[in-house]
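Hey team,

Filing this mostly as a record. A colleague (T.K.) asked me to run one chain through the structure pipeline before their review meeting, and I want the input and output archived in the tracker in case anyone asks later how it was produced. No errors, nothing strange. Just documentation.

Input sequence:
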Amino acid sequence: MRQHQTQPLKNSSVLSLVIVTVLFSLVVDDQPIASAKSSGIWHRVRKGDTVWDIARKYKVPHNAILKANQIQSEKRIHIGKKLFIPGGLPEHKYGTWYRVKHGDTLSRIAVNHGIPVSNLVWRNRLKSADYLQANQKIFIPNLHPSNFAPPMRIKLVLTSGYGYRRHPILKKRMFHYGLDFRARKGTRVYASKSGKVIRSGWRSGYGNYVLIKHAEGFETLYGHLYIIRVKNKQHVKQGQIIALSGNTGRSTGPHLHFEIRKNGKNVNPIHYLNLRQ
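Output structure:
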């Protein structure tokens, strides 16, 4: 009699365990563990995807994806798996793609989309404003209305962009949090936006640097400087000289390293800079 009463309980327990296990596996498979407060998007893994490729696409650190999804080995991502991308934005948030038509010029495309020609040249790594071919796809970035001015008044030549790259000194793949512009030693560096100097001096890697706080949670950083011409807590206006470019810190040659941060997190400066040159 005792055995007859116990059997249904065992069956019930086993059934409950199976249901819980199935539900848990579904949740874990579709919703990797991530903080409810985290901002970001979901990405479904496609054939050929790697964590590095996904990180490059959404302009976020590769380690952030591993941590948010509790991935032990970056080789163990399966097609169809949904990954949470912390801080990621859908591609259309950055801009739109445009297919070049016969007779199109970069100037006409720029005017039609309300964006400086130089931004299109930069974003699409074009050799020049005249380098266009019919049916070519170019990316039209959305410019943030914050209106950051170029940090130098020379013709800006981008030597290293925002995102993953092979570090020229450390010789390993690392995330580059800003833009590098070619500049001779002693080139004037200007405040990209009005604000208050919150830090200046020497920092490992950056060398001599200046960090300026702006409205709306923005900050700009200027690195590898030769001479700093502002002091901590000093208020500066957009276009004011703050330093001279140099080759200090971890650098392979004279240039300016420029970053924009929003609420403490790095963003791609190319989406904010108004490059009307």
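Quick notes for T.K.: The two ends are 92 Å apart (CA to CA). The first helix runs from residue 2 to 30.
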